[in-house]
Design a protein that fits this description.
Elements (H helix, E strand, L loop, with lengths): L3 E4 L3 H7 L7 E4 L12 E4 L4 H11 L4 E4 L6 H14 L3 E4 L12 E4 L2 H7 L6 E4 L17 E5 L9 E5 L6 H11 L3 E5 L8 H9 L3 E4 L9 E3 L2 H7 L5
Parallel strand pairs: 1-2, 1-4, 2-3, 4-5, 5-12, 6-11, 7-8, 7-10, 8-9, 10-11
């Protein structure tokens, strides 16, 4: 049987990992909770770029690489595609569809941090849902703004920011309560797709709030792409 290396860190990847066998490997960067209830082996930590990943693939006799990392983990996806190609093994990728604006949405699309902060200039109480990136910029908050940063990392509040340590999925009722309590006037988001964090977009729509949306990065071509875990597991001939 083909030995699978699953590159993960997302909820979708964990669903795939729960179907893998004891000979397969689930690889995590180690930034979140490490599961301890899987049949497959769990590897935590980086590989040392595409060259290191290629060596691991060859040394461990990996026959298939599955990239189920976050849609914004562009460097890891590039490393996976290059390493698999160099090791002459196929690379599959789970590429969940991006969210699409709905009637009533006010999305302001940006490509990088500078464009993002420029788009926020007119607002006072943004909610950042970008992960940890805003934590590196807490000393740059404009005098008229107070930031709310929701991420997995635990971090002390500052005089101009509150860190909301939380893990999805988030419910519509919970998001409505949070937005009402904190009085956000703009939402900052990645276009991650999926349902786990989509409720925030519905609440922003309900409240007439703009969304500063970070565009997805370009990702490399691979042998096969899948839009859902169901389709990928079917291709592996594993039950969903």
């Amino acid at each position: 049987m083909t030995r699978v290396l699953l590159l993960g860190g997302t909820g979708d990847a964990l669903r795939i990992a729960r179907h893998l066998s004891a000979r397969d490997v689930y690889s995590l960067a180690g930034l979140g909770k490490v599961p301890d209830d899987l049949r497959c082996a769990v590897r935590v930590g980086g590989f040392g770029g595409s060259d290191g990943l290629q060596r691991y693939i060859e040394q461990e006799a990996i026959g298939l690489v599955i990239d189920a990392t976050h849609p914004y983990a562009a460097q890891m996806s590039a490393n996976a595609a290059l390493a698999a190609r160099s090791a002459r093994v196929p690379c599959w990728a789970l590429r969940r569809p991006a969210w699409q604006p709905q009637p009533g949405d006010d999305w302001r699309m940006v490509d990088n941090w500078n464009e993002l902060t420029a788009a926020l200039a007119a607002f006072r109480r943004p909610l950042f849902t970008l992960g940890r990136e805003p934590l590196a910029h807490l000393d740059e908050i404009p005098a008229h703004q107070f930031w709310f940063v929701r991420c997995l990392d635990s971090h002390a509040d500052t005089p101009r920011a509150r860190i909301l340590t939380a893990r999805g999925p988030f419910t519509l009722e919970g998001e409505r309560a949070l937005f009402a309590l904190q009085g956000f006037d703009v939402l900052v988001s990645k276009n991650s797709g999926g349902s786990a964090t989509e409720a925030k977009l519905e609440v922003a729509r309900e409240r007439g709030l703009p969304v500063v949306m970070l565009r997805r990065p370009a990702l490399p071509a691979v042998e096969r792409e899948f839009a859902s875990t169901t389709d990928l597991l079917a291709a592996l001939r594993l039950p969903d």
